[in-house]
Inverse folding.
């Protein structure tokens, strides 16, 4: 179904339209929330919170961006609010890092692959939640800089600079660990 | 982009099977707790009704007033003339009639007690 039609049905309160939106975007929303919060249960809570607020929030949505991009914006805002309410999210990330690696990556056949993925998780954990989610959306979800600027409400140049710094930081971390490992 | 970080080794999560059902349950609970719009008297809508009603009253009064005054004009107007001599004491009448006749430069004032008694009487 065309996105404009879905949007109109959503504004009319259609549950079927919401179900279509869920099918198309729930996984992306969940993974973005997980990248920011690094907690599966909290990410699921954010996913549900986002979709529960869609029927009301969509009334103010003018359709200037794609519905998926708009959902990412709702997700980032919801995650930031949660992180701010926790106030100690940096410490939380450190505490849960090992558990997360086990939960998300699981046991893989190749020890090298496991090592790389774990390192990557640790490298990502060095970044602030917002920058980490931005990097995830750009490099894993293939969003363009324009969409990111819309989601994070900052100029495209700032987005590019943040992405560049984030990549350097993660790569430097991986390189350093591998050299010492 | 060659510069990209490779996230392909990280597992992608999928929502739990009951998550959608939970979303639906929360939405149903919200809609059940929200009172129907029609049952609520929207006070704000009255804000525009009040000036409109006031304008209608003004217009109708403007239309009706000439008719009311015309009716009043048709009725004979009765007036009653009351002579000042019939209600005022002699002292006051004589003082009033002698005003301006004196050649004296002094003010011709009515004696206070006479004036007061007249006012009190009235």
């Amino acid at each position: 179904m065309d996105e404009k039609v879905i949007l109109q049905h959503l504004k009319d309160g259609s549950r079927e339209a919401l179900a279509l939106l869920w099918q198309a975007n729930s996984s992306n929303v969940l993974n973005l929330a997980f990248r920011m919060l690094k907690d599966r249960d909290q990410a699921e809570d954010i996913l549900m919170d986002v979709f529960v607020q869609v029927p009301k929030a969509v009334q103010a949505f003018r359709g200037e961006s794609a519905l998926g991009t708009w959902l990412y914006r709702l997700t980032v805002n919801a995650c930031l609010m949660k992180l701010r309410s926790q106030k100690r999210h940096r410490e939380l990330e450190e505490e849960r890092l090992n558990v997360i690696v086990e939960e998300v990556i699981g046991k893989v056949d190749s020890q090298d692959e496991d090592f790389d993925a774990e390192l990557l998780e640790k490298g990502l954990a060095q970044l602030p939640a917002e920058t980490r989610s931005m990097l995830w959306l750009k490099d894993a979800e293939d969003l363009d800089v324009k969409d990111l600027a819309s989601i994070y409400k900052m100029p495209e140049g700032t987005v590019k600079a943040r992405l560049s710094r984030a990549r350097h930081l993660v790569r430097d971390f991986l390189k350093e660990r591998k050299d010492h490992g | 982009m060659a510069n990209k970080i490779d996230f392909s080794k990280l597992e992608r999560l999928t929502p739990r099977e009951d998550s959608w059902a939970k979303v639906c349950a929360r939405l149903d609970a919200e809609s059940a707790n929200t009172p129907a719009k029609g049952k609520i008297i929207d006070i704000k809508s009255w804000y525009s009704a009040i000036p409109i009603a006031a304008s209608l009253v003004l217009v109708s009064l403007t239309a009706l007033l000439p008719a009311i005054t015309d009716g009043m004009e048709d009725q004979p107007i009765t007036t009653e003339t009351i002579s000042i001599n019939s209600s005022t004491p002699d002292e006051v009448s004589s003082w009033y009639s002698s005003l301006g006749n004196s050649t004296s430069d002094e003010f011709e004032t009515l004696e206070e007690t006479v004036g007061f008694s007249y006012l009190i009487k009235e």
